[in-house]
Write a structure and sequence with these properties.
By secondary structure, the chain is of the alpha/beta class. The protein folds into two domains: 356 residues, Metallo-dependent phosphatases (Purple Acid Phosphatase, chain A, domain 2); 226 residues, 5'-Nucleotidase, C-terminal domain (5'-nucleotidase,  domain 2, Alpha-Beta Complex), CATH 3.90.780.10. It is 25% helix and 28% strand. It has 17 helices and 34 strands. The strands form nine sheets. It has a six-stranded mixed beta sheet with strand order 9-8-7-4-18-19, covered by helices on one side. A six-stranded mixed beta sheet has the order 11-12-14-15-17-16, covered by helices on one side. A hairpin with a 6-residue loop joins strand 16 and strand 17. Helix 2 runs parallel beside helix 5. The radius of gyration is 25 Å and the shape is globular. The N and C termini lie far apart (72 Å).
Amino acid sequence: MTLHTHRDPEPTPRWCSCAVPDDELEPTTPGVSRRNVLVGLSAAGVLAAAGWPGSAQAAPGDDSVTITIMGTSDLHSNAVNWDYYKDATFSDSAGNAVGLARVSSVVNQIRADRGREHTLLFDAGDTIQGSPLGFYYALVDPVTQSGAIHPMAAQMNAIGYDAVALGNHEFNYGLDFLDYWISQMDADVLAANAVHAGTKVPAFTPYTIKRMKVKGRPPIRVGVLGLTNPGVVIWDKANVSGKLEVQGLVEAAARWVPVIRAAGADVVVVSAHAGDSGTSSYVGDLPIENAAALVAEQVPGIDAILFGHAHKDVPQRLVTNAQTGRQVVLSEPKNWGQRVSVFDLTLEFARGKWSVTTGSALTVNTNTVVDDPALVAVVKAQHEAVVAYVNTPVAVSTEAMSAAEACWKDTAILDYVNAVQTATVAAAVAGTPEAALPVVSIAAPFNRAATFPAGQVTIKDVAGLYIYDNTLLASILTGAQIKDYLEYSAKYFVQVDPAAPVAPATWTNAGNTPDYNYDQFSGVEYGVDISQPVGSRIVGLAYNGAPVASDQQFLVAVNNYRQSGGGGFPHIAGAPVVYNAQVAIREAIVSYASAAGTIDPADFHVENWRLVRNGTPVF
């Protein structure tokens, strides 16, 4: 076995320094990189607020040592405690704070309390997408063209992350953009289960091993395995199809944990971009989406799992491994830098080796500290450029519009999204055979807090309405397929007695269905009878006043997430695609509004659907 630098011979190569056996990559195990980082407030304060028991490591050279592993997940390009949609400091009803600058203050204090030599810092993915900051430096002023360092890479390097797993949203901007970001990261960027299509060869570094010095004893070797989400092949099909496949988390962990142990790891930590529910949001034969707890239960040799993806605060979950009977400690930090997971692993040195004897975890709320000024300074110029961008006017609205009731009423503001999508698709297919088909459009209420003010509408208003970096496609569906689609969407509502009081806010999100999975059609008329059981709710489906025929064809404007199978809606993933110009929907809305200069609901708002109960409209 020889050590060399390997550059994969793929159209979109990834890189790693690898020891290459016969058919799989086996990375080297570089030491922990150390950086001097500003220490903020008193260490005791933030840790006590989180219920941290205080310093527990024994004196160097003793037979027991406690190490601390800190973790974040789902940062989604939140660098500082700022809400770009409101153009103000972030605030919510729970008093949370966001951003890597807050995370840095927590990390500084824990390092001060625990000792820098006894700590490591990992992340579980979804880092470069999800806020206007991420969007701006991917699509408006791409770092791949300017040569600038990505703000999240700059901050993570300044904090001193030791390893970062890839989340599914890392693939949103394509593999070339992802390669560029990885090249800027000082930390190891990991995804063992993302393999080159048709092979078992990882397309990214699978794992790394970090060495922690202990006076008078051999170093503690901490292996970290990175796992991304199988849903990547659905949600970013256009970017990865034919290039990457994503194995199941359990399968990949079972393959790589023994390799990590054989490479000398005393501790094995998994950083997994997957929730712990054991369920999936998609259908079909893909491996389980939220498999973190299953990995702990089914794969022996793991001591701790940092997980994410679900955007929840899970301070500690203990799972017993079915083969060994040992407990594995799991923790998920709340998204956007609102929490930092902190694992406390105690190791004993016996018979010439280190082994974990106990493990615990908690999460630290970043609202207990202030932004680290050094981390704010790192991205100050980039943050200010985005603030200026999102405040750019695009049009004037003749009246105020709100998405507050968009989950149960046909609202003008959501109709505007459908109007833009319909116009874009209609223009694109002009002169083609598909131009003869009626164009309908699908949109969902992504953000109930979205508003267009009366008067000047800015980019931040549009970004607040359309918060995802989706692109626009058009597919062909039949009338029968649209009916099935709408029935599936209508499971979003609980079943409501016709005589029950009108309380629409209590009728939504049945079965924990999120708002973004309640799709509404424009271009056809229909009712949603919530007094009926799921599957029998769509009534009066019509086009231009006539009932829709089962075999009637429609050209459907739809976003790439839904068209690729996200949400498990019927028919759409297998429908013929006749338009896919990779147009970002948010940018299409901005361009459409800018060209018109005016946003007037009279031009586009049509109440084409409504909630009914036993045939009687609710509103």
